[in-house]
Amino acid sequence: METMTIEIHSGKRDEMIDITDRISDAVGEIGVADGVVTVYVPHTTAGVTINENADPSVVHDILAALDMAVPWHQSFYRHSEGNSAAHVKSTMIGCSLQVLVREGKLVLGTWQGIYFCEFDGPRRRKVIIAVR
Amino acid sequence: METMTIEIHSGKRDEMIDITDRISDAVGEIGVADGVVTVYVPHTTAGVTINENADPSVVHDILAALDMAVPWHQSFYRHSEGNSAAHVKSTMIGCSLQVLVREGKLVLGTWQGIYFCEFDGPRRRKVIIAVR
Amino acid sequence: METMTIEIHSGKRDEMIDITDRISDAVGEIGVADGVVTVYVPHTTAGVTINENADPSVVHDILAALDMAVPWHQSFYRHSEGNSAAHVKSTMIGCSLQVLVREGKLVLGTWQGIYFCEFDGPRRRKVIIAVR
After folding, report:
1. C38, C97 in Cβ contact below 8 A?
2. Measured on CA atoms in the order B79, B83, B85, B90, is the torsion positive or negative?
3. Do residues B45 and B115 make contact, with C-beta atoms less than 8 angstroms apart?
4. For residues A58 and B45, what is the distance between their CA atoms, to the nearest angstrom?
5. By the 8 A CB rule, do C93 and A92 touch?
6. What does the pLDDT read at residue A21?
């Protein structure tokens, strides 16, 4: 199994950063023709997801709806760092994702892009990419 | 890695369609004895999940609770297609799932079924199945 | 593909049980140096996630926020067992997770632990671990 790590610098508290091209490049460098790529986020206040990369308003709406479902301030939060909502969103969205690779290319739908999800930025983050 | 694609026709805006038998048949056709099957939905307003396939009221309750957590109409949505909630649900539920295969059969719990989740139907959809 | 099954006894309705060491031990016993471990929960009112294992208040806040987003009692629930919220949370969090293995060890971030999520306890549960 070959792995690569990429670095990401987020700029806002909540942000979805399109990393499709970076995953695609990593898969190309690793040089596997057919298999599965695992995209892994080693953080507890971030995640990884797949969604539309055509209209940027989709990303806005996803982040706003998550913020409505899991408000930043809730009276019952106990975690002293004050970023409990980010932990909840990380668990809701997930930190591990699998995408198929065929003939050296990511198998994505027409409108699909892979997004790193920052829920407690700005921060320096890592994403691990493994292909088998 | 062997892959198969199946077609699904959804009939409602929100719908969970049991695709366990179709995944199971695909795994049988591909003919892998032991491994992992990846079920991949190449859409941004749909998803894939595992839940109870005994009492149909469970599916009703899941869809209704998701609709309550992520309402179809919210004042802050900007995406002009009007289906932002479907994008949010897709990201919450996920479009990629892994199930183990042992002796050519899906390793599922007693009550578990695999569901294609339609969040913006009715539509024609695809599901990609890959076994390794 | 080698698999192992571990048993878990949950003690509350909602509970996140840290199973990192048990997964790690299973990976060690199976003896794979490099690969991917699939952690699979064969239940429909439980799940598996990765989040912080340093401050226990994080777990409290995650369970409380999920309970707020998906209340235990909602007028539209039809499922007669009365545990619909547990089914919804199971589908939101997911029952299948992949973690990388390198040199025989789980590749986890500094603060990451693997949690079995009980949403309808107390119960006896199983977790299947498969390494490739």
Report:
1. yes
2. negative
3. no
4. 11
5. yes
6. 98
Average pLDDT, chain B: 97
Is residue B20 helix, strand or coil?
Answer: helix
φ/ψ of C123, rounded to 5, equals -150, 165
Residue type, C99: V
Would you say B46 and C88 are in contact if contact means Cβ atoms under 8 Å apart?
no
Amino acid at residue number B33: A
pTM: predicted TM-score of the whole model, two decimal places: 0.98
Residue C85, φ and ψ in degrees, nearest 5:
-60, -35
* Site of tokens 């995406």: B79
**C84-113 tens-digit pLDDT:** 999 999 999 999 999 999 999 999 999 999
Homologous superfamily of A2-131 in CATH? YjbQ-like (2.60.120.460)
Enumerate the residues of chain B whose CB falls inside 8 A of the CB of residue A58.
44, 79, 84, 87
Given this model, what pLDDT does residue C16 score? 98
User: Which of A91, A116, A120 has the highest number of chain C CBs within 10 A, making it the mutation to test binding with C?
Assistant: A91
- Name the residue of chain B whose CA is nearest to C78's CA: B57
Mean pLDDT of B26-42: 95
